[in-house]
Amino acid sequence: MPQLPAFDVMTATCPSRTSLVRIANKWTAMVVIALSSGRMRFRDLRATVDGISAKVLTETLRDLERDGLVTRHMYAEVPPRVEYELTALGRTLHAPLHALGSWAEDHITEVLAARESYDARQ
Amino acid sequence: MPQLPAFDVMTATCPSRTSLVRIANKWTAMVVIALSSGRMRFRDLRATVDGISAKVLTETLRDLERDGLVTRHMYAEVPPRVEYELTALGRTLHAPLHALGSWAEDHITEVLAARESYDARQ
DNA sequence: CTGTATCCGCTATGATACTG
DNA sequence: CAGTATCATAGCGGATACAG
Q1: What stretch of H or E contains A4?
Q2: Which of A44, B76, B95, B122 is the most buried (most CB within 10 A)?
Q3: pTM across the whole model
């Protein structure tokens, strides 16, 4: 029997699980990766994170702001301008999420080959 | 204007996005972390990944197997025994996902404080 | 431009019962 | 034990319209 990892996130009732659920999410990952290059406007985020709707982007940013990962900067201009920026805490999350994005790109050939092989077998 | 990250996963139609979507997922993260300690039986995975249903665990393992991240070992015994193991490719995914789990645990205090502060403001 | 407000379908997930 | 099958439901997420 392999040694079990003593990982709190594995416990459904542990608070850290709620945090993992939020960060282990495609939209969160892409938004944080996008923001790693610096402060960005709402519309630029929407353009960068291809396919995200305004509603989902708004909700994702709100959740990130609530968790202390993102700061919201509003400008009283017309038309209005709002910029989002990673907090110090948010920047500590960049490396893990960026690693996930890099993994997806670095291994896509192997993954696609595996899928093809699997589907051919079934 | 900050420099935009030239990240394929940001493009909705890029194959690597489909891979990111799969790995940037709470269940995937927890199952891969659990399997990092070695080969495990279905029931032990269910017990380790607290709260996961048999159905979801089955589907998660199938998806991971299809992407070439997990190998399935069946034993013709009664009662049946099935073990799951990370492939070489799957093991390369452990570090990024483990980092995510560690992040959730290491920063849960800050996250909870941020949530409390945010909720109090609203 | 940056949202909010609906409406709503689809998918993810859970519960339960059943099979080999 | 390790699933599969079925059903029920919540919430994610898309489309659209509208507001400040």
Answers
A1: none
A2: A44
A3: 0.93
